Amino acid sequence: MIRAYSSNDKGKLVELLRLNTPEFFHPDEEKDFIEYLEQEAENYFVVEDAGMLVGAGGFNGGFDNGRTVRISWDIIHPDYQGKGIGKKLTRYRIDQIREDPAVKKIVVRTTQLVYGFYQKIGFELEKVEKDYWAEGFDLYQMKLDLNKASSS
């Protein structure tokens, strides 16, 4: 089940981030994530399975005069990775974003560790920047052109 984030979820989401640190997130990113949840999580969603929070991800607009939306803070419980939850959550957000006809492009800023996941969904690599997030965590900026992408 995918539902909107509630501030009551914050503690469980921080735990989820920690379960993915240091494999997918640098320890220094925790403070940024907490700040995001407290100040920028307007379109943030959680995934529950049998009452357990197993994933989360959001998006933020307002880029390029409203034509670009950025996917943000995707986190999946390690025991649930590879089971299609991330794909369902990403497709769910793409469908939400498509409801705004002004949006033409979706950007995701990720790392070399998971860019292949987004590539399979149809995102194209725009740029790479070494050690952007932290040492060993490179920026892989990818885009999905909504004019070219097929709907889910």
What shape does the CA trace take? globular
Order of helices and strands: EHHEEEHEHEE
Relative strand content: 35-45%
Distance between the termini: 18 Å
Q: Based on helices, strands and strand pairing, what is the structural class?
A: alpha+beta
Pfam family, one: Acetyltransf_10
Domain N-acetyltransferase: 1-147
InterPro entries: Acyl_CoA_acyltransferase (IPR016181), GNAT_dom (IPR000182)
Protein name: N-acetylglutamate synthase, GNAT family
Characterise the protein shown here.
Helices cover 28% and strands 38% of the residues. The model has no long low-confidence stretch (mean pLDDT 94). The protein has one domain (2-145): Aminopeptidase (3-Layer(aba) Sandwich), CATH 3.40.630.30. The protein is globular, with a radius of gyration of 15 Å. Helix 1 (10-19) packs antiparallel against helix 2. With 152 residues, it is α+β, with helices and mostly antiparallel strands. 25% of the residues are buried. This is N-acetylglutamate synthase, GNAT family. GO terms for molecular function: acyltransferase activity, transferring groups other than amino-acyl groups. Residues 1-147 form the N-acetyltransferase domain. InterPro entries: Acyl_CoA_acyltransferase (IPR016181), GNAT_dom (IPR000182).
